[in-house]
Amino acid sequence: MITVGFTLIGRGSWSGGESYLRNMLSVIASELGGKVQAKLFLTPEQHASVGASFDHMLAAPAIVDDRVMDAGLGKRGLIAVAGGSDRAFADLVVAHAVDLVFEVAQWFGNRFPLPVISWIPDFQHRRLPHLFPCRAWWRRDLGFRLQTSGNRTIMLSSEDALADCETFYPASRGKTAVVRFAIDLDPGAVMARTEAARRAHDLPERFFFLPNQFWIHKNHGLVVEALKHIDRLGALDSLPPIILTGRTTDPRDPMLFKRLMGLAQAHRLEGHFRYLGLIPYEDVVGLIGATDCLLNPSHFEGWSTTVEEAKSLGAPMLLSDIRLHREQAPDALFFPPDDTEALAQRLLQIGQGPRIVRDRVAELQGRQQIRRRDYAAALLALFEKARTAAR
User: Fold this and answer.
1) Rounded mean pLDDT of 376-384?
2) Does residue 274 sit in the same domain as residue 330?
3) What is the pLDDT of residues 143-187, one digit of tens each?
4) Which of 7, 13, 151, 257 has its CA 20 to 30 A from that of 112?
5) CATH number for position 42
6) Are both 60 and 82 inside the same structural domain?
7) 3-state SS of the chain?
8) Does residue 79 sit in the same domain as residue 227?
9) What is the pLDDT of residue 13?
Protein backbone atom coordinates (compact mmCIF):
# COMPACT_ATOMS: atom_id res chain seq x y z
CA MET A 1 0.00 0.00 0.00
CA ILE A 2 1.31 3.44 -0.99
CA THR A 3 -0.02 6.39 1.00
CA VAL A 4 -0.06 9.65 -0.98
CA GLY A 5 -0.59 13.07 0.56
CA PHE A 6 -2.57 15.68 -1.38
CA THR A 7 -3.39 19.33 -0.83
CA LEU A 8 -6.22 21.25 -2.47
CA ILE A 9 -5.70 22.25 -6.10
CA GLY A 10 -7.07 25.32 -7.81
CA ARG A 11 -9.39 27.16 -5.45
CA GLY A 12 -10.39 30.56 -6.80
CA SER A 13 -10.19 31.33 -10.51
CA TRP A 14 -8.98 27.90 -11.62
CA SER A 15 -11.95 25.61 -10.98
CA GLY A 16 -10.41 23.01 -13.28
CA GLY A 17 -7.71 22.27 -10.70
CA GLU A 18 -10.22 21.36 -8.03
CA SER A 19 -12.16 19.24 -10.54
CA TYR A 20 -8.92 17.48 -11.46
CA LEU A 21 -8.24 16.62 -7.82
CA ARG A 22 -11.78 15.34 -7.26
CA ASN A 23 -11.52 13.15 -10.32
CA MET A 24 -8.11 11.75 -9.35
CA LEU A 25 -9.17 10.96 -5.78
CA SER A 26 -12.34 9.29 -7.06
CA VAL A 27 -10.40 7.08 -9.48
CA ILE A 28 -7.90 6.14 -6.74
CA ALA A 29 -10.78 5.15 -4.46
CA SER A 30 -12.64 3.11 -7.08
CA GLU A 31 -9.77 1.56 -9.04
CA LEU A 32 -6.77 1.36 -6.70
CA GLY A 33 -8.29 0.15 -3.44
CA GLY A 34 -5.77 -1.87 -1.45
CA LYS A 35 -2.87 -0.45 -3.50
CA VAL A 36 -3.05 3.32 -2.92
CA GLN A 37 -4.49 5.33 -0.04
CA ALA A 38 -5.05 9.06 -0.52
CA LYS A 39 -4.80 11.44 2.42
CA LEU A 40 -6.06 14.98 1.87
CA PHE A 41 -4.54 17.84 3.88
CA LEU A 42 -6.60 21.04 4.14
CA THR A 43 -6.27 24.39 5.85
CA PRO A 44 -9.12 25.17 8.26
CA GLU A 45 -10.48 27.69 5.75
CA GLN A 46 -10.44 25.14 2.93
CA HIS A 47 -12.14 22.54 5.08
CA ALA A 48 -14.89 24.95 6.03
CA SER A 49 -15.68 25.69 2.39
CA VAL A 50 -15.16 22.39 0.54
CA GLY A 51 -13.99 19.74 2.99
CA ALA A 52 -17.22 17.74 3.25
CA SER A 53 -17.47 17.38 -0.53
CA PHE A 54 -14.33 15.20 -0.56
CA ASP A 55 -15.33 12.81 2.24
CA HIS A 56 -16.81 10.09 0.03
CA MET A 57 -13.54 9.87 -1.97
CA LEU A 58 -11.34 9.25 1.06
CA ALA A 59 -10.87 6.24 3.30
CA ALA A 60 -10.47 8.60 6.28
CA PRO A 61 -11.57 12.21 6.87
CA ALA A 62 -9.38 15.00 5.55
CA ILE A 63 -6.61 16.18 7.88
CA VAL A 64 -7.22 19.80 8.87
CA ASP A 65 -4.22 21.75 10.13
CA ASP A 66 -2.75 25.25 10.00
CA ARG A 67 0.54 23.77 8.81
CA VAL A 68 -0.94 22.94 5.40
CA MET A 69 0.47 25.20 2.69
CA ASP A 70 -2.00 27.01 0.44
CA ALA A 71 -1.34 27.37 -3.30
CA GLY A 72 1.42 29.61 -4.60
CA LEU A 73 5.11 30.10 -3.87
CA GLY A 74 4.37 32.65 -1.14
CA LYS A 75 6.26 33.21 2.12
CA ARG A 76 6.26 29.52 3.09
CA GLY A 77 7.65 28.56 -0.31
CA LEU A 78 10.41 31.15 -0.06
CA ILE A 79 11.33 29.82 3.38
CA ALA A 80 11.49 26.34 1.83
CA VAL A 81 13.84 27.71 -0.84
CA ALA A 82 16.14 29.17 1.80
CA GLY A 83 15.97 26.31 4.27
CA GLY A 84 15.57 23.42 1.87
CA SER A 85 12.22 22.24 3.21
CA ASP A 86 8.84 23.36 4.49
CA ARG A 87 9.50 21.83 7.89
CA ALA A 88 6.05 22.49 9.31
CA PHE A 89 4.27 20.63 6.53
CA ALA A 90 6.98 17.94 6.46
CA ASP A 91 6.43 17.18 10.16
CA LEU A 92 2.68 16.97 9.56
CA VAL A 93 2.78 14.48 6.68
CA VAL A 94 5.46 12.34 8.34
CA ALA A 95 3.30 12.15 11.46
CA HIS A 96 0.45 10.82 9.31
CA ALA A 97 2.59 8.04 7.78
CA VAL A 98 2.54 9.43 4.22
CA ASP A 99 4.90 7.76 1.73
CA LEU A 100 5.01 10.57 -0.85
CA VAL A 101 3.33 13.92 -1.51
CA PHE A 102 1.67 15.50 -4.54
CA GLU A 103 2.75 19.09 -5.23
CA VAL A 104 0.95 21.57 -7.51
CA ALA A 105 1.72 25.30 -7.74
CA GLN A 106 3.58 24.94 -4.46
CA TRP A 107 7.14 24.35 -3.29
CA PHE A 108 7.78 22.04 -0.35
CA GLY A 109 11.55 22.41 -0.63
CA ASN A 110 14.39 20.46 -2.21
CA ARG A 111 15.26 18.67 1.03
CA PHE A 112 11.73 17.56 1.80
CA PRO A 113 12.01 14.26 3.72
CA LEU A 114 9.53 12.40 1.51
CA PRO A 115 9.43 11.79 -2.26
CA VAL A 116 7.56 14.53 -4.13
CA ILE A 117 5.52 14.33 -7.34
CA SER A 118 5.15 17.74 -9.00
CA TRP A 119 2.26 17.99 -11.44
CA ILE A 120 2.83 20.74 -14.02
CA PRO A 121 -0.44 21.07 -15.99
CA ASP A 122 0.96 23.09 -18.90
CA PHE A 123 3.52 25.62 -20.05
CA GLN A 124 1.21 28.33 -21.30
CA HIS A 125 3.44 31.14 -20.06
CA ARG A 126 6.20 29.86 -22.35
CA ARG A 127 3.99 29.34 -25.39
CA LEU A 128 1.89 32.51 -24.95
CA PRO A 129 4.17 34.86 -22.96
CA HIS A 130 2.34 37.97 -24.16
CA LEU A 131 -0.66 36.97 -22.01
CA PHE A 132 1.32 37.19 -18.75
CA PRO A 133 2.42 40.34 -16.91
CA CYS A 134 6.17 40.30 -16.34
CA ARG A 135 5.95 39.62 -12.60
CA ALA A 136 3.43 36.77 -13.08
CA TRP A 137 5.58 35.25 -15.82
CA TRP A 138 8.70 35.19 -13.66
CA ARG A 139 6.85 33.90 -10.59
CA ARG A 140 5.45 31.01 -12.61
CA ASP A 141 8.78 30.29 -14.30
CA LEU A 142 10.69 30.34 -11.03
CA GLY A 143 8.33 27.74 -9.60
CA PHE A 144 8.80 25.46 -12.59
CA ARG A 145 12.58 25.89 -12.49
CA LEU A 146 12.63 24.91 -8.84
CA GLN A 147 10.45 21.86 -9.43
CA THR A 148 12.21 20.59 -12.55
CA SER A 149 15.73 21.07 -11.20
CA GLY A 150 15.01 19.47 -7.85
CA ASN A 151 14.80 15.89 -6.65
CA ARG A 152 11.26 15.32 -7.89
CA THR A 153 9.23 13.19 -10.25
CA ILE A 154 7.53 15.53 -12.74
CA MET A 155 4.04 14.48 -13.79
CA LEU A 156 2.73 15.79 -17.12
CA SER A 157 -0.66 15.30 -18.75
CA SER A 158 0.35 14.90 -22.40
CA GLU A 159 3.19 14.20 -24.80
CA ASP A 160 2.77 17.83 -25.88
CA ALA A 161 3.50 19.00 -22.33
CA LEU A 162 6.40 16.56 -22.07
CA ALA A 163 8.03 18.06 -25.17
CA ASP A 164 7.60 21.57 -23.73
CA CYS A 165 8.95 20.55 -20.33
CA GLU A 166 12.12 19.00 -21.69
CA THR A 167 12.63 21.87 -24.15
CA PHE A 168 12.17 24.75 -21.71
CA TYR A 169 13.56 22.97 -18.60
CA PRO A 170 16.27 20.51 -19.71
CA ALA A 171 17.01 19.60 -16.08
CA SER A 172 13.70 17.70 -16.06
CA ARG A 173 14.92 15.04 -18.49
CA GLY A 174 14.87 11.58 -17.01
CA LYS A 175 12.51 12.63 -14.20
CA THR A 176 9.23 12.93 -16.11
CA ALA A 177 6.14 10.76 -16.53
CA VAL A 178 3.08 11.32 -18.73
CA VAL A 179 -0.26 10.51 -17.08
CA ARG A 180 -3.30 11.30 -19.23
CA PHE A 181 -6.27 11.67 -16.95
CA ALA A 182 -9.70 10.20 -17.66
CA ILE A 183 -12.94 11.54 -16.26
CA ASP A 184 -14.64 9.52 -13.52
CA LEU A 185 -18.04 9.71 -15.20
CA ASP A 186 -20.84 7.20 -15.74
CA PRO A 187 -22.15 7.77 -19.31
CA GLY A 188 -25.37 5.89 -18.56
CA ALA A 189 -26.32 8.11 -15.63
CA VAL A 190 -25.48 11.30 -17.53
CA MET A 191 -27.27 10.33 -20.74
CA ALA A 192 -30.40 9.47 -18.75
CA ARG A 193 -30.79 13.10 -17.74
CA THR A 194 -29.63 15.01 -20.81
CA GLU A 195 -33.14 16.02 -21.82
CA ALA A 196 -33.91 17.23 -18.30
CA ALA A 197 -30.76 19.38 -18.37
CA ARG A 198 -31.68 20.82 -21.77
CA ARG A 199 -35.23 21.67 -20.69
CA ALA A 200 -34.04 23.11 -17.37
CA HIS A 201 -32.15 25.78 -19.29
CA ASP A 202 -34.81 26.27 -21.98
CA LEU A 203 -32.56 25.19 -24.84
CA PRO A 204 -33.64 24.06 -28.30
CA GLU A 205 -33.12 20.47 -29.41
CA ARG A 206 -30.04 21.47 -31.42
CA PHE A 207 -27.26 23.65 -30.02
CA PHE A 208 -23.48 24.00 -29.83
CA PHE A 209 -21.95 23.98 -26.34
CA LEU A 210 -18.87 25.95 -25.24
CA PRO A 211 -18.35 25.45 -21.46
CA ASN A 212 -14.94 27.11 -21.12
CA GLN A 213 -14.02 29.72 -18.55
CA PHE A 214 -13.75 33.20 -20.02
CA TRP A 215 -9.97 33.42 -20.04
CA ILE A 216 -8.27 35.30 -22.83
CA HIS A 217 -6.48 32.25 -24.25
CA LYS A 218 -9.81 30.39 -24.55
CA ASN A 219 -10.44 32.51 -27.66
CA HIS A 220 -14.18 33.22 -27.32
CA GLY A 221 -13.69 36.27 -29.54
CA LEU A 222 -13.18 34.08 -32.59
CA VAL A 223 -16.65 32.63 -32.07
CA VAL A 224 -18.24 36.08 -32.08
CA GLU A 225 -16.35 36.95 -35.27
CA ALA A 226 -17.47 33.69 -36.89
CA LEU A 227 -21.08 34.46 -36.01
CA LYS A 228 -20.71 37.94 -37.53
CA HIS A 229 -19.39 36.32 -40.72
CA ILE A 230 -22.30 33.86 -40.83
CA ASP A 231 -24.73 36.73 -40.34
CA ARG A 232 -23.18 38.58 -43.30
CA LEU A 233 -23.76 35.44 -45.38
CA GLY A 234 -27.43 35.55 -44.41
CA ALA A 235 -27.23 32.10 -42.82
CA LEU A 236 -27.51 32.90 -39.12
CA ASP A 237 -31.15 31.82 -38.83
CA SER A 238 -30.20 28.31 -40.01
CA LEU A 239 -27.55 27.90 -37.30
CA PRO A 240 -28.23 26.40 -33.86
CA PRO A 241 -27.24 28.76 -31.03
CA ILE A 242 -23.89 28.57 -29.25
CA ILE A 243 -24.49 28.08 -25.52
CA LEU A 244 -21.82 29.20 -23.06
CA THR A 245 -21.11 28.57 -19.38
CA GLY A 246 -18.12 29.12 -17.08
CA ARG A 247 -16.45 31.66 -14.83
CA THR A 248 -16.24 35.15 -16.26
CA THR A 249 -13.17 36.58 -14.52
CA ASP A 250 -9.64 36.63 -15.92
CA PRO A 251 -7.13 38.66 -13.86
CA ARG A 252 -5.10 39.23 -17.02
CA ASP A 253 -8.07 40.88 -18.79
CA PRO A 254 -10.78 41.80 -16.27
CA MET A 255 -13.07 43.37 -18.91
CA LEU A 256 -12.95 40.42 -21.33
CA PHE A 257 -16.39 38.98 -20.58
CA LYS A 258 -18.13 42.36 -20.60
CA ARG A 259 -16.41 43.25 -23.88
CA LEU A 260 -17.39 39.98 -25.57
CA MET A 261 -21.03 40.18 -24.50
CA GLY A 262 -21.17 43.82 -25.53
CA LEU A 263 -19.79 42.95 -28.96
CA ALA A 264 -22.36 40.19 -29.40
CA GLN A 265 -25.16 42.54 -28.38
CA ALA A 266 -23.95 45.33 -30.66
CA HIS A 267 -24.18 42.96 -33.63
CA ARG A 268 -27.49 41.47 -32.47
CA LEU A 269 -25.91 38.06 -31.94
CA GLU A 270 -26.89 37.53 -28.31
CA GLY A 271 -29.49 34.91 -29.29
CA HIS A 272 -26.71 32.85 -30.86
CA PHE A 273 -24.03 33.64 -28.26
CA ARG A 274 -26.01 32.83 -25.13
CA TYR A 275 -24.40 32.70 -21.69
CA LEU A 276 -26.16 30.59 -19.03
CA GLY A 277 -23.93 31.61 -16.13
CA LEU A 278 -22.31 29.22 -13.67
CA ILE A 279 -24.48 26.12 -13.63
CA PRO A 280 -24.16 22.89 -11.58
CA TYR A 281 -21.62 20.36 -12.83
CA GLU A 282 -24.39 17.80 -13.35
CA ASP A 283 -26.01 20.21 -15.81
CA VAL A 284 -22.69 20.92 -17.57
CA VAL A 285 -22.13 17.25 -18.37
CA GLY A 286 -25.83 16.83 -19.11
CA LEU A 287 -25.60 19.53 -21.77
CA ILE A 288 -22.43 17.94 -23.19
CA GLY A 289 -24.52 14.79 -23.50
CA ALA A 290 -27.32 16.70 -25.26
CA THR A 291 -25.35 19.01 -27.55
CA ASP A 292 -24.97 18.63 -31.30
CA CYS A 293 -21.30 19.44 -30.88
CA LEU A 294 -18.85 20.50 -28.17
CA LEU A 295 -16.93 23.60 -29.27
CA ASN A 296 -13.48 24.56 -27.99
CA PRO A 297 -11.67 27.37 -29.86
CA SER A 298 -8.80 27.66 -27.36
CA HIS A 299 -5.33 28.82 -28.34
CA PHE A 300 -3.82 26.57 -25.68
CA GLU A 301 -4.73 23.60 -23.46
CA GLY A 302 -2.91 21.35 -21.03
CA TRP A 303 -5.34 18.40 -21.25
CA SER A 304 -8.88 19.64 -21.74
CA THR A 305 -11.42 18.45 -19.17
CA THR A 306 -14.35 19.35 -21.41
CA VAL A 307 -12.87 17.37 -24.29
CA GLU A 308 -12.43 14.39 -21.97
CA GLU A 309 -16.06 14.71 -20.86
CA ALA A 310 -17.19 14.85 -24.49
CA LYS A 311 -15.18 11.71 -25.29
CA SER A 312 -16.84 9.92 -22.39
CA LEU A 313 -20.31 10.88 -23.62
CA GLY A 314 -19.72 10.34 -27.32
CA ALA A 315 -20.31 14.01 -28.14
CA PRO A 316 -19.09 15.25 -31.54
CA MET A 317 -16.33 17.86 -31.18
CA LEU A 318 -15.26 20.94 -33.10
CA LEU A 319 -11.83 21.96 -31.80
CA SER A 320 -9.08 24.46 -32.52
CA ASP A 321 -6.24 22.87 -34.44
CA ILE A 322 -3.57 22.86 -31.74
CA ARG A 323 -1.17 20.02 -30.96
CA LEU A 324 -2.85 19.08 -27.71
CA HIS A 325 -6.29 18.74 -29.28
CA ARG A 326 -4.84 16.54 -32.03
CA GLU A 327 -3.29 14.33 -29.36
CA GLN A 328 -6.36 14.18 -27.13
CA ALA A 329 -9.13 13.87 -29.72
CA PRO A 330 -7.73 12.86 -33.12
CA ASP A 331 -11.20 12.04 -34.49
CA ALA A 332 -12.64 15.53 -33.91
CA LEU A 333 -13.25 18.19 -36.56
CA PHE A 334 -10.66 20.98 -36.48
CA PHE A 335 -10.23 24.61 -37.51
CA PRO A 336 -7.25 26.99 -37.26
CA PRO A 337 -7.65 29.00 -34.03
CA ASP A 338 -7.21 32.35 -35.81
CA ASP A 339 -9.32 31.65 -38.93
CA THR A 340 -12.78 33.21 -38.65
CA GLU A 341 -14.04 31.90 -41.98
CA ALA A 342 -12.84 28.35 -41.31
CA LEU A 343 -14.75 28.24 -38.01
CA ALA A 344 -17.83 29.73 -39.68
CA GLN A 345 -17.72 27.05 -42.38
CA ARG A 346 -17.39 24.29 -39.81
CA LEU A 347 -20.31 25.66 -37.75
CA LEU A 348 -22.50 25.75 -40.85
CA GLN A 349 -21.37 22.29 -41.93
CA ILE A 350 -22.45 20.81 -38.59
CA GLY A 351 -25.43 23.05 -37.86
CA GLN A 352 -27.08 22.66 -41.26
CA GLY A 353 -26.38 18.93 -41.52
CA PRO A 354 -28.17 16.03 -39.82
CA ARG A 355 -27.50 15.34 -36.18
CA ILE A 356 -24.67 12.89 -35.64
CA VAL A 357 -25.95 9.66 -34.09
CA ARG A 358 -24.02 8.71 -30.96
CA ASP A 359 -22.87 5.28 -29.98
CA ARG A 360 -25.02 3.25 -27.63
CA VAL A 361 -24.62 3.83 -23.91
CA ALA A 362 -23.18 0.34 -23.39
CA GLU A 363 -20.40 1.07 -25.87
CA LEU A 364 -19.67 4.44 -24.24
CA GLN A 365 -19.52 2.79 -20.82
CA GLY A 366 -17.14 0.11 -22.06
CA ARG A 367 -14.69 2.61 -23.55
CA GLN A 368 -14.94 4.84 -20.50
CA GLN A 369 -14.10 1.96 -18.18
CA ILE A 370 -10.99 1.19 -20.24
CA ARG A 371 -9.88 4.84 -20.03
CA ARG A 372 -10.42 4.88 -16.26
CA ARG A 373 -8.41 1.70 -15.78
CA ASP A 374 -5.61 3.01 -17.98
CA TYR A 375 -5.53 6.23 -15.96
CA ALA A 376 -5.48 4.31 -12.68
CA ALA A 377 -2.66 2.07 -13.92
CA ALA A 378 -0.63 5.11 -15.00
CA LEU A 379 -1.14 6.73 -11.58
CA LEU A 380 -0.03 3.57 -9.80
CA ALA A 381 3.08 3.31 -11.98
CA LEU A 382 3.86 6.97 -11.24
CA PHE A 383 3.53 6.52 -7.48
CA GLU A 384 5.73 3.42 -7.57
CA LYS A 385 8.32 5.22 -9.72
CA ALA A 386 8.46 8.19 -7.33
CA ARG A 387 8.83 5.98 -4.27
CA THR A 388 11.51 3.83 -5.91
CA ALA A 389 13.47 6.84 -7.24
CA ALA A 390 13.84 8.23 -3.73
CA ARG A 391 15.49 5.11 -2.33
Assistant:
1) 95
2) yes
3) 999 999 888 999 999 999 999 999 999 999 999 999 999 988 899
4) 13
5) 3.40.50.2000
6) yes
7) CEEEEEECCCCCCCHHHHHHHHHHHHHHHHHCCCCEEEEEEECHHHHHHHHHHHHHHCCCCCEECCCCCCCCCHHHHHHHHHHCCCHHHHHHHHHCCCCEEEECCCCCCCCCCCCEEEECCCCHHHHCHHHCCHHHHHHHHHHHHHHHHCCCEEEECCHHHHHHHHHHCHHHCCCEEECCCCCCCCHHHHHCCHHHHHHHCCCCCCCEEECCCCCHHHCHHHHHHHHHHHHHCCCHHHCCCEEECCCCCCCCCCCHHHHHHHHHHHCCCCCCEEECCCCCHHHHHHHHHHCCEEEECCCCCCCCHHHHHHHHHCCCEEEECCHHHHHHCCCCEEECCCCHHHHHHHHHHHHCCCCCCCCCHHHHHHHHHHHHHHHHHHHHHHHHHHHHHCC
8) no
9) 54
